[in-house]
């Protein structure tokens, strides 16, 4: 059964190689002679003012959570798409009702302005 | 599969779902002065659902959605009670939420969805349906508690409620999955049959059962899983506390009936012991801790814990009589809680929460009528005859006696006497102390009428309990074989 | 039993080892962002193990929903909050003996209850292996949209409630926002903004333009 996943394994390895190889090559081939000044963060000639990592706006949270909810909805679409031919009209309608309920949610969030970025 | 007959069987649920979505959208187009339309639509939904359930009412048992959904007398009766008490909750809380900026479409929509979850729980015939209904209800309740965003105490309460509630759901689900693993079915009747017929691995079943009972106890608020209850009752806006404290208990009752009695009665020998321990502890902790409270909402929370203890008496007696008295008890409890929190809402006004015991001082001087209503409610909670609370306690005790738990009954009666202290303290405050607060009490007409009816019903059902007892008996006998 | 492990056993032990390592790092690493990334690794290897159990739909969902979406939210939250881990860890070693004792006690209890006596592999019949074209996803689909349509629709309702709750609880308008609605900008007429005032042609004064916003 595992042999079915061989292409995926291969895919993962190729993906890893594409990601890792250039960095590794750069490390090995490029000359590297760091000193104190080179390693310090550059900010238009000044000393760095603050930490480079800054806090995100809280409003991202709402966008992210709405994204998750619709992402979950997609998870339900996968098996449906696989068996759509077998489950007939009933299965089709049950998914339409499912989507309909979520469309109501979508209309609500749109009208509420939750998707707007002021 | 016949979709039309399925939808017909679950017509009230379908109607509530459609109306809730409609209200959600309609409310977007209303401005604050037209918000009463949302309120009216919500009440209309409750009325429509009640008509549908009442018309479909019969003593036959019907199934829908491949046996995931059951339509029996218990479901009908409890659903009608759920609509009625939700409607009462809305009437009581209308002024309160309007003054606190919560008179928004979301409030009503969340209440309706919570009610839909309860309806599904009441009709659940499968672990999955029961669980989904419970989650729908819980999710709505968490957000209702936090709906007043500026209120830090409510937010904290919502946080605690959410974390502990999620833990309880996890336990319940864990137990259900173990039972599923052993019996190979999610359907309550098939689970029951599998346990009866098969040579199953008993310890694993028991482990699953322990998780299920722990999850149930969390949701009911029985000791040792009661910690969330006082904080949530205290922290939540009183209108939401009223909803959580009253209506949801009807669904919790049905949930226990479906899971423990319909599904796992064969393991009764194993869960009886757990319920006895929880009942005894709940009665002790509820009654003793309530004495120390100065906050009325907190006191009522501990009173709930002790009532849950009494409720469990009916369950662990394990007889039909016991289940009927448990149902009677829960209905009586809902009636009393509605009235009790109704009085708190009545005394609250803009920027003032009448939730301390001292706020009730001298209520008799300010309004003799509402003081009398509160007197009836407190007598009923304490179990003083001739109120419904007395008869409810009497019925569960009788059932427990018949099952041979003499010692436990004696103990419970003694604890009820201890509990009477803090209820009677309120009566003393109302009648024998000087008022600290002279603000006039002017409820809207519908609330005044309903609250009066609520208080008098406590007395009426206490004097003539046969009718209500008959309804409970019919509901249980035609549903549980 | 042969000494040599089968290939799937090797894969299992490899994935399990990575999973354990990632799980440990989640709770021991100092940087919360790194902890979240280790959690991603843990989810990923868990998905691999589910794949070995032939539960490929669950595995896909785990990657899609948890790695793809839930962890994004986690990272957002971690970056949103200014978590000071050093302060969180204050008193760690003071509580360690008690916490360690309770933890060990719980572990012993769990071993006693969940030991092989009742939960061992002997109790479970090994499921028959499926053919290569057997699709777990299709089996799930056959049931989910027909027999289990009620819980399925309830899932939609729960998602809807989550949308409503998320918006009702977290959305707030900013008071000092400098945002203007493009639609309103386009709709503006000349008369809304500009007022032409007829005046005597005074030499000293200029034409007054009065902007409203």
What is Rg of chain B?
Answer: 21 Å
The count of helical stretches of chain B stands at 21
Q: Any idea how many domains of chain B?
A: 1
Count every beta strand of chain B, where a strand is a DSSP E run of 2 or more residues. Answer: 2
Query: What does the radius of gyration of chain C come to?
Result: 31 Å
Strand arrangement across the biggest beta sheet of chain B: 1-2
Q: Roughly what is the average pLDDT of chain B, rounded to an integer?
A: 92
Biggest sheet features of chain C: none
Description:
The complex is a heterotrimer of chains A (118), B (481) and C (213). By secondary structure, chain A is mostly helical. Chain A has a single domain (2-112), classed as NADH:ubiquinone/plastoquinone oxidoreductase, chain 3 (Methane Monooxygenase Hydroxylase, Chain G, domain 1, Up-down Bundle), CATH 1.20.58. In chain A, 69% of the residues lie in helices and 0% in strands. The longest helix of chain A has 54 residues, at 59-112. Chain B has one domain. Chain B has a two-stranded antiparallel ribbon. In chain B, helix 10 crosses helix 11. Chain C contains ten helices and no strands. Chain C is elongated, with a radius of gyration of 31 Å. The model of chain C has no long low-confidence stretch (mean pLDDT 82). Classes of the chains: A mainly alpha (118), B mainly alpha (481), C mainly alpha (213). Chains in contact: A-B, A-C, B-C. At the A-C interface, helix 3 of A face helix 1, helix 3, helix 7 and helix 8 of C.
Summarize the structure.
Chain B has helices spanning 3-9, 11-28, 36-56, 73-99, 105-122, 127-145, 152-183, 188-197, 202-220, 228-235, 238-245, 247-263, 268-291, 296-317, 320-347, 363-366, 368-382, 388-402, 406-432, 445-463, 466-477, and strands spanning 62-64, 69-71.
List keywords for this structure.
heterotrimer; A: 118 residues; mainly alpha; Methane Monooxygenase Hydroxylase, Chain G, domain 1; C: 213 residues; elongated
């Amino acid at each position: 059964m595992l042999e079915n996943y061989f292409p995926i394994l291969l895919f993962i390895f190729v993906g890893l190689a594409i990601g890792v190889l250039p960095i590794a090559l750069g490390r090995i081939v490029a000359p590297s002679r760091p000193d104190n000044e080179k390693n310090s963060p550059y900010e238009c000639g000044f000393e760095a003012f603050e930490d480079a990592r800054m806090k995100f706006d809280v409003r991202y949270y709402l966008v992210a959570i709405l994204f998750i909810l619709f992402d979950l909805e997609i998870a339900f679409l996968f098996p449906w798409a696989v068996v759509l031919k077998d489950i007939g009209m009933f299965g089709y309608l049950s998914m339409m009702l499912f989507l309909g309920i979520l469309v109501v949610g979508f209309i609500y969030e749109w009208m509420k302005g939750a998707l707007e970025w002021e | 599969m016949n979709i039309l007959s399925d939808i017909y069987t679950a017509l009230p649920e379908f109607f509530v779902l459609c109306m809730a979505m409609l209200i959600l959208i309609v409310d977007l187009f209303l401005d604050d002065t037209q918000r009463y339309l949302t309120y009216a639509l919500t009440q209309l939904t409750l009325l429509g659902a009640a008509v549908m359930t009442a018309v479909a009412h019969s003593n036959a048992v019907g199934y829908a959605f491949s046996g995931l959904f059951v339509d029996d007398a218990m479901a009908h009766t409890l659903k009608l009670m759920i609509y009625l008490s939700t409607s009462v909750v809305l009437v009581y809380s209308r002024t309160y939420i309007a003054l606190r900026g919560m008179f928004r479409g979301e409030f009503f929509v969340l209440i309706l969805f919570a009610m839909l979850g309860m309806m599904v729980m009441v009709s659940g015939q499968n672990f999955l349906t029961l669980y989904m209904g419970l989650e729908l209800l819980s999710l709505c309740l968490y957000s209702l508690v936090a709906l007043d965003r500026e209120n830090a105490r409510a937010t904290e309460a919502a946080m605690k409620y959410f974390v502990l509630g999620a833990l309880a759901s996890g336990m319940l689900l864990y137990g259900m999955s173990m039972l599923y693993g052993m019996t190979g079915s999610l359907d309550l009747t098939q689970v029951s049959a599998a346990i009866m017929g098969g040579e199953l691995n008993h310890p694993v079943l028991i482990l699953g059962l322990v998780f299920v009972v722990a999850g149930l106890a969390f949701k009911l608020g029985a000791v040792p899983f009661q910690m969330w209850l006082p904080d949530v009752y205290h922290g939540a806006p009183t209108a939401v506390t009223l909803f959580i404290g009253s209506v949801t208990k009807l669904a919790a009752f049905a949930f226990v009936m479906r899971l423990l009695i319909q599904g796992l009665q064969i393991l009764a020998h194993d869960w009886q012991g757990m319920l006895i321990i929880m009942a005894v502890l709940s009665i002790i902790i509820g009654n003793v801790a309530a004495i120390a409270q100065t906050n009325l909402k907190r006191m009522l929370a501990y009173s709930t814990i002790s009532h849950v203890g009494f409720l469990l008496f009916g369950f662990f007696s394990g007889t039909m009589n016991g289940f009927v008295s448990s149902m009677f008890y829960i209905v009586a409890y809902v009636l009393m809680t509605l009235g009790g929190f109704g009085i708190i809402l009545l005394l609250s006004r803009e920027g003032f929460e009448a939730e301390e015991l001292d706020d009730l001082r001298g209520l008799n001087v300010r309004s003799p009528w509402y003081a009398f209503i509160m007197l009836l409610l407190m007598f009923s909670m304490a179990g003083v005859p001739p109120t419904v609370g007395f008869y409810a306690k009497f019925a569960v005790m009788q059932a427990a006696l018949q099952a041979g738990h003499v010692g436990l009954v004696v103990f419970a009666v003694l604890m009820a006497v201890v509990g009477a202290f803090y209820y009677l303290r309120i009566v003393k405050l109302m009648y024998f102390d000087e008022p600290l607060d002279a603000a006039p009490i002017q409820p809207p007409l519908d609330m005044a009428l309903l609250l009066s009816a609520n208080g008098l019903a406590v007395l009426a059902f206490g004097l003539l309990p046969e009718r209500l007892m008959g309804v409970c008996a019919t509901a249980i006998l035609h549903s549980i074989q | 039993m042969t000494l040599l492990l089968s290939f799937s056993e090797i894969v299992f032990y490899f994935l399990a080892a990575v999973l354990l390592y990632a799980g440990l790092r989640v709770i021991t690493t100092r940087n919360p962002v790194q902890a979240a990334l280790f959690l991603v690794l843990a989810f990923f290897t868990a998905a691999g193990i589910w794949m070995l159990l032939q539960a490929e739909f669950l595995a896909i969902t785990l990657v899609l929903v948890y790695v793809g979406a839930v962890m994004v939210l986690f990272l957002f939250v971690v970056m949103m909050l200014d978590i000071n881990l050093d302060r969180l860890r204050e008193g760690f070693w003071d509580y360690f003996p008690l916490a360690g004792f309770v933890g060990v006690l719980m572990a012993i209890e769990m071993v006693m209850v969940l030991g092989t006596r009742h939960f061992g592999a002997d109790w479970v019949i090994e499921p028959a292996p499926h053919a290569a074209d057997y699709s777990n996803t299709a089996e799930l689909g056959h049931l989910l949209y027909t027999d289990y349509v009620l819980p399925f629709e309830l899932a939609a309702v729960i998602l809807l409630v989550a949308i409503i709750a998320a918006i009702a609880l977290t959305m707030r308008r900013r008071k000092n926002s400098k945002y203007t609605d493009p639609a309103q900008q386009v709709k503006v007429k000349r008369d809304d903004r500009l007022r032409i005032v007829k005046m005597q042609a005074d030499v000293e004064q200029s034409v007054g333009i009065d902007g409203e916003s």
